[in-house]
């Protein structure tokens, strides 16, 4: 206090000397107090742990695209995982592993423990938590095909390690510190495979100390049997621990065999300690996240960005094991031939921005994913729409592997059998039913699409008569028409590039089918009966019943009216031109729900992240904010994408606007934060938005660095005033992949007011099918 009182009487000259002398030390102290963070330290896996309405995210510990994905298994069955207050155990392949003290027993739920997020560490490479009920600290880390656990016990005469399995399981006590076994694989949706051929997941576990006494259980009875088969079987050890004594469990997993699970564990561990495996996985994530480096932005924005990037690098999953893989598409083990095999992909949504982002960062891996799809085609006869470890699950609509393949091909990445890819896409487009949630041959409903140019809806009041229709998912007729016209466009582009002119003409005609469900009288996409009549009493906002599924996929006509990614120019023509299109697009972001928001969401629970009737939480919306780039008002795109990033993405448990769907919703944020987005995958261009970082450097698959500089960017300075690409003025609100494939620099001058001239000329709009066709006839 005395020192402060003396300093208050110093004259201004003396103060200036003090400031000059002290400033370097202040900077040094600041730098010392806030050391530079590794990128992986920005990742917060608990973001999105509370769902906005439906599914929450899972805080996986895994390697990028790793086969082993670990997260605490919470209970009771609370879908908002972050709100669960008990952990029942941890995944050991198909088994549940848990540590406890006190009484044992045959009920796995009795081993559960309370926990508190304030005493939890959650990262992509390491997880730790205090198991409050037992006074045990649990830690885990991961390898490609293996899991590593470390439990620190209190002093207790009765410490337990428990392992339980579910349906159609096998368990063997191999030695006084080794277990192995397997279980039938359970997946989210019902796979299209015979029960007798359902795949299995195998495990091999080595513990760091002998079990001591142990028992197994079957049918709720404790036994000393070392070999068990059946449902709901388990194992429990019983031994004393000194305070702070640790036991580790190293788990190898496999989809091939128990022997392979053991090999996978030995390969991954390489004699490393738990801490060394953890450090190796941390380094792998730092390298993967380092594909994009950022300068500027806030700590919160970097946390959201790198968490979203982490989520964008989880799928597809590489299930190659020592150069072999199990495929549920023919129930056989195959040699990988030097190209790894990937599954677990909801291509209905991941084609939109997840795969284009992955292609940008790692083209080699993306081409192996395409090779994987082609192997599935060879093994099953179809390109799948949701390839899982259990085979084709076939949820949702569309045959969007066409977009995945065309996007890589159009951007110059062709290390796969293009002729086979074309054959596979063409078979899907011409021989596979378009019905939602179904795989199989064409039906009478499909023939209406080919003959009349739209998928038929039921007439008003008509009861469903087609046996092939899933009565829960309904026909989704308008969405089926729009999304399959996009798939037909993809096939037409590939046919054109390969010189298959007859096919190119035919599928180009089908690509216009979206026009047949646009009702000019009401200005919306609308359902038609098989006779071609517009369905009576149709409401663009609330029509279609639960989830809109009679006519649409999870959302309503307001969103699907803008669902024509491949022909925005043609859509504008249907609406009467740019002015009418912009007015309708503005209205989308302003239109309100029904009388009450809760009523609207009770009908459309997937339509979360609402701005007006635009739904950031559901994938059919994701390209829509960028459509102003096509209609001469790119400054509105710049405003909207910033608003959506600021409002609907956060750094806490509510930080995801809806279902992340394995990273698709997160990948939208990554692309948008970098400043550009692929409105139409398969068209090798990117539409420009408004980056949030002053500088973003993207390492493009080892080919070069693409740098986006947002000069003067801030929260208010979100509007582009001018741009240069690779040293040349850029007057368009888009650029080609070829411009950046080997690296380059995009410089955007930012300001706080829109430049309504930049990117607004008609001739500067991004490519669209109708414009391309018009240019071809000139």
Automatic annotation (TrEMBL):
One of its GO terms (cellular component) is cytosol. One of its GO terms (biological process) is glycoprotein catabolic process. Residues 752-778 are annotated as: Disordered. GO terms for molecular function: carbohydrate binding; peptide-N4-(N-acetyl-beta-glucosaminyl)asparagine amidase activity. Pfam families: Glyco_hydro_92 (PF07971), Glyco_hydro_92N (PF17678). Residues 758-778 have a biased composition (Polar residues). It comes from the Bacteria. Residues 42-254 form the Glycosyl hydrolase family 92 N-terminal domain. Transmembrane segments: none annotated. Residues 260-752 form the Glycosyl hydrolase family domain. PANTHER family: PEPTIDE N-GLYCANASE PNGASE -RELATED (PTHR12143), PUTATIVE-RELATED (PTHR12143:SF43). This is Alpha-1,2-mannosidase, putative. It comes from Granulicella rosea.
């Amino acid at each position: 206090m005395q020192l402060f009182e003396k300093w208050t009487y110093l004259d201004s000259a003396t103060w200036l000397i003090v400031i000059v002398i002290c400033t370097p030390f202040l900077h040094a102290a600041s730098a010392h107090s806030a050391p530079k963070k590794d990128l992986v330290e920005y990742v917060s896996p608990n973001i999105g742990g509370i769902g906005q309405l439906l599914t929450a995210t899972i805080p996986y510990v895994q390697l990028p695209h790793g086969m082993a994905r670990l997260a605490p298994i919470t209970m009771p069955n609370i879908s908002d995982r972050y709100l669960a207050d008990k952990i029942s155990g941890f995944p050991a392949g198909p088994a549940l592993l848990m540590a406890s003290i006190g009484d044992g027993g045959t009920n796995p739920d009795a081993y559960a423990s309370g926990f508190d997020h304030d005493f939890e560490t959650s990262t992509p490479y390491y997880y730790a938590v205090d198991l409050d009920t037992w006074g045990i600290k649990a830690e885990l880390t991961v390898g490609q095909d293996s899991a590593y656990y470390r439990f620190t016990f209190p002093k207790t005469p009765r410490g337990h390690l428990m392992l339980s399995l579910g349906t159609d399981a096998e368990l063997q006590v191999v030695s006084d510190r080794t277990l192995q076994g397997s279980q039938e694989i359970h997946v989210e949706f019902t796979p299209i495979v015979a029960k007798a051929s359902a795949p299995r997941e195998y495990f091999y576990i080595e513990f760091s100390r002998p079990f001591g006494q142990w028992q197994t259980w079957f049918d709720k009875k404790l036994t000393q049997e070392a070999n068990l088969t059946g449902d709901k079987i388990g194992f429990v050890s019983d031994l004393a621990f000194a305070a702070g004594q640790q036991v580790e469990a190293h788990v190898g997993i496999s989809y091939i065999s128990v022997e392979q699970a053991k090999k996978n564990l030995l390969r991954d561990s390489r004699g490393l300690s738990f801490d060394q495996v953890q450090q190796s996985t941390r380094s792998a994530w730092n390298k993967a996240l380092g594909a994009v480096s950022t300068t500027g932005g806030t700590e919160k924005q970097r946390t959201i960005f790198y968490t979203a990037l982490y989520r964008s690098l989880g799928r597809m999953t590489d299930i190659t094991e020592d150069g072999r893989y199990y495929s549920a598409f023919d129930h056989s083990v195959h040699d990988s031939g030097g190209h790894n095999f990937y599954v677990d992909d909801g291509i209905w949504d991941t084609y939109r921005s997840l795969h284009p982002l992955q292609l940008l960062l790692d083209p080699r891996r993306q081409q192996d994913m395409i090779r994987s799809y082609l192997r599935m085609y060879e093994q099953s006869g179809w390109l799948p729409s949701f390839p899982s470890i259990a085979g084709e699950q076939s949820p949702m609509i569309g045959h969007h592997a066409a977009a995945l393949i065309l996007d890589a091909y159009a951007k110059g990445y062709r290390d796969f059998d293009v002729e086979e890819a074309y054959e596979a896409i063409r078979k899907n487009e011409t021989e596979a039913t378009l019905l939602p949630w179904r795989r199989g041959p064409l039906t009478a409903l499909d023939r209406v699409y080919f003959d009349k140019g739209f998928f038929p809806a039921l007439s008003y009041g008509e009861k469903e008569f087609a046996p092939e229709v899933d009565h829960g998912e309904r026909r989704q007729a308008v969405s089926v028409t729009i999304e399959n016209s996009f798939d037909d466009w993809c096939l037409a582009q590939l046919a054109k590039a390969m010189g298959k002119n007859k096919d190119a003409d035919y599928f180009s005609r089908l690509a216009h089918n979206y026009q047949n469900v646009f009702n000019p009288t009401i200005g919306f996409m609308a359902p038609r009966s098989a006779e071609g009549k517009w369905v009576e009493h149709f409401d663009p906002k609330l029509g279609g019943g639960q989830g809109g599924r009679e006519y649409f996929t999870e959302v309503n006509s307001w969103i699907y009216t803008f669902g024509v990614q491949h022909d925005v120019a043609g859509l504008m023509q249907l609406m009467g031109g740019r002015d009418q299109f912009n007015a309708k697009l503005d209205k989308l972001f302003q239109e309100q729900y029904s009388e009450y928001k809760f009523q609207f969401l009770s009908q459309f629970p997937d339509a979360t992240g609402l701005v007006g009737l635009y739904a950031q939480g559901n994938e059919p919306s994701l390209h829509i904010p960028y459509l102003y780039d096509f209609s001469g008002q790119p400054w509105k795109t710049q405003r909207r994408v910033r608003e959506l990033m600021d409002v609907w993405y956060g750094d806490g448990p509510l930080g995801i606007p809806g279902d992340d769907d394995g990273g698709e919703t997160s990948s939208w944020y990554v692309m948008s934060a970098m400043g550009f987005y692929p409105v139409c995958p398969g068209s090798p261009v990117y539409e420009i938005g408004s980056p949030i970082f002053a500088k973003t450097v993207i390492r493009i698959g080892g080919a070069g660095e693409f740098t986006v500089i947002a000069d003067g960017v801030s929260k208010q300075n979100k509007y582009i005033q001018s741009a240069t690409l690779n040293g040349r003025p850029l007057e368009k609100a888009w650029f080609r992949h070829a411009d950046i494939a080997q690296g380059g620099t995009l410089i955007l001058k930012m300001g706080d007011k829109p430049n309504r001239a930049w990117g607004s000329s008609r001739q500067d709009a991004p490519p669209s099918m109708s414009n391309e066709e018009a240019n071809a006839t000139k």
